[in-house]
């Protein structure tokens, strides 16, 4: 599945990092990077991240 983050919405709260630390990474300058294509084994964690994002910035595809 593909992971999209709308960086116009993201406010670097970091909740996604707690939910899926091997997919999302928040840096010292508040920039967020993430794995754009994840396997089925990460689906639950990434769906959890999308749910807890207070800005609803994470969109999953596939
Ligand atoms: S939880 Fe949402 S707002 Fe916070 S860093 Fe992740 S994508 Fe950005």
From TrEMBL:
SUPFAM superfamilies: 4Fe-4S ferredoxins. Keywords: 3Fe-4S, Electron transport, Iron, Iron-sulfur, Metal-binding, Transport. It comes from the Bacteria. One of its GO terms (molecular function) is iron ion binding. Coiled coil: none annotated. InterPro entries: 3Fe4S_ferredoxin (IPR001080), Fe-S_cluster_ET (IPR051269). Pfam families: Fer4_15. The keyword Phosphoprotein does not apply. Its cofactor is [3Fe-4S] cluster. PANTHER family: FERREDOXIN. Ferredoxins are iron-sulfur proteins that transfer electrons in a wide variety of metabolic reactions. This is Ferredoxin. It comes from Conexibacter arvalis. The lineage of its organism: Bacteria, Bacillati, Actinomycetota, Thermoleophilia, Solirubrobacterales.
């Amino acid at each position: 599945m593909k992971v999209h983050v709308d960086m116009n919405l993201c406010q670097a709260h970091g909740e996604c990092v707690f939910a899926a630390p091997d997919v999302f990474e928040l840096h010292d300058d508040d920039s967020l990077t993430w794995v754009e294509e994840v396997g089925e084994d990460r689906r639950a964690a990434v769906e959890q991240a999308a749910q807890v994002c207070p800005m609803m910035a994470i969109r999953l595809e596939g």
